[in-house]
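Appendix B. Raw example, untouched.
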Amino acid sequence: PTEPKLQRQWHEQTTLFTHFADFLGDRLSDTRRQTIEKVLANIMPLRIRRLTTGQPLTLIHGDLHAGNMLYPRNPAKDTLRLIDWKSWSILPGAFDMANMLVCYWIKERRQQLQDTLLRRYHHYLQEFGVTNYDWDACWYDYRLGVIEHVFFPIWQQSVETPDFAWWHNFDRILTAYDDLGCAELL
């Protein structure tokens, strides 16, 4: 990611949020509106600092969830396969974890498994040779990924994804944003 690309992304997200807020009208609570406005007002320095200063990044899927996985019929013979790579990017790896755990899991399930899965993810990063990426950095990236995903349902609504999909994502993401104290990163 480059700073000009991040600036274009921010401008697009700002425009989409304006349309989203107009579309929802009074169905968008003041609290949630203020949360998104705070994210928009403060996200750029975080993005620039995290994504353009040489800190570790990796190839991410960008739409990681159970529907984009092919499970082996015989696990002893074959492995899990990830499909639908149209949203791939180069970002912190924990962004994929945020996508899977925050967008698609209900609060109770996320809270039950989040720490275990993130620690396992971090363990395997280290086991496979990733250095200079401690647990605190992984946890930070996960929470930053949650903040970034605030814009996911806004984008979904803009491309006419059915409301039963983006509305639930909107609720789950903003609930996780609050639960994980993401506002303190802004």
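End of appendix B.
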